[in-house]
Predict the 3D structure of the following.
Amino acid sequence: MSQWTPDSRADAVDAFLEHAPVLPVLAIQRLDDAVPLARALVAGGLPVLEVTLRGPFALAAIAAIRSAVPEAVIGVGTVLRSTDLHAAIEAGARFAIAPGATEALYAAAAGAVIPFIPAVATASELMRGLELGYRRFKFFPARSAGGTDALRSLAGPFPQARFCPTGGIDAESAPSYLALANVITVGGSWMAPNDVVARGDWQAITALAHACTGLRPAR
């Protein structure tokens, strides 16, 4: 039986995603980068991080960050199956995000101790998530699924839904998403470029993260 209600699940997600206008999406390629990268992002004002399972050291990176950077709020991304969700919980993730949703994942998430954020790209997928008691979603792949026009269109029939658009978003396009009332935050990786991470320029990462904090326009 689910431990979540629609209200409690939405509140739990909001408690994380409302911290900052941008959610860094990180694929850790070297475990030694995990802690200094997290510290640099937190120092720049982005405390909520998504560590994706696309990186070879994702679970170890989550555990390392939880231990060394307690002020960071770590979520796990690219959750594709129930075993991914369980592994993320064991590693200490505070929330889980998928690039889509399956009935098996919804079933596993119903009893999970951390909130699950499914992804949708269509109205039908959104309706299924709402039917199951979800109100917060990743909108993915954001740019190719219609971008801000699609999110504006979804706001009419689905006013209870709010989104974290991810996919094809950068510093230039982020403000147009963040101006929408149904967008909580946006996901992206532009504040942690692979080449900058590879050379360990953590000051540059902090500066890029700090720039993200000013991207939300006044409504």
Notes: The longest strand covers residues 22-26. The mean pLDDT is 96. Residues 31-43 form the longest helix (13 residues). The beta strands are 22-26, 48-52, 73-77, 95-97, 116-117, 119-120, 136-139, 162-165, 186-188.
